[in-house]
Amino acid sequence: MLKVIDKINFNKVKGKSMACVYRFTRDEWRCVSAKGDFVHLRYKAGILALTSATSEYDLGNIVMLIGSTVDYDDYDTTTNDKLAEEVLCAKLKYPPLNFKEIKDFLEWKVEEENIWDCFLK
Fold first, then answer.
1. pLDDT tens, residue by residue, 6-39
2. In a domain, 23, yes or no
């Protein structure tokens, strides 16, 4: 389902160990790595983004676009026509993600009892 969109950044975060994970919003997860670093994942408009830092204050300074659920190769994005852009946006569907899909995609190691993947409104 997820496809790599930036191999360099993907390889930086692939195969990590997380101490705990919880879903913060419908499309956002907050994690703490086994080394104690803070990691935030955000899924928006079909793009999975990740930011990581040693302190919460520094989160967001560097944001890495890791993966996408949309295969843009199926659509002609070379045109600058506004109508074509609106049609493209209408065709694109962004399926919901759960943390298991993200964990499998990034090949992360997390104890199942340390994952809370439900969003409470």
1. 999 999 999 999 999 999 999 999 999 999 999 9
2. yes
For residue 37, being part of any structural domain is answered with yes
Specify the amino acid at residue 53: A
Is 48 exposed, middle or buried, given 0-12, 13-18 or 19+ CB atoms closer than 10 A? Answer: buried
- In a domain? residue 56: yes
Please tell me the total count of domains within the chain. 1
Task: Locate all alpha helices (DSSP H) within 1-121, ordered by sequence.
Answer: 7-13, 82-91, 99-106
Range of the domain at 96: 3-107
Residues 36 and 15: their CA atoms lie apart, in Å, by 16
User: Per 3-state DSSP, what percentage of the chain is helix, strand, and coil (rounded to 5)?
Assistant: 30, 35, 40
Q: How does pLDDT run across 33-67, given as a tens digit for each residue?
A: 999 999 999 999 899 999 999 999 999 999 999 99
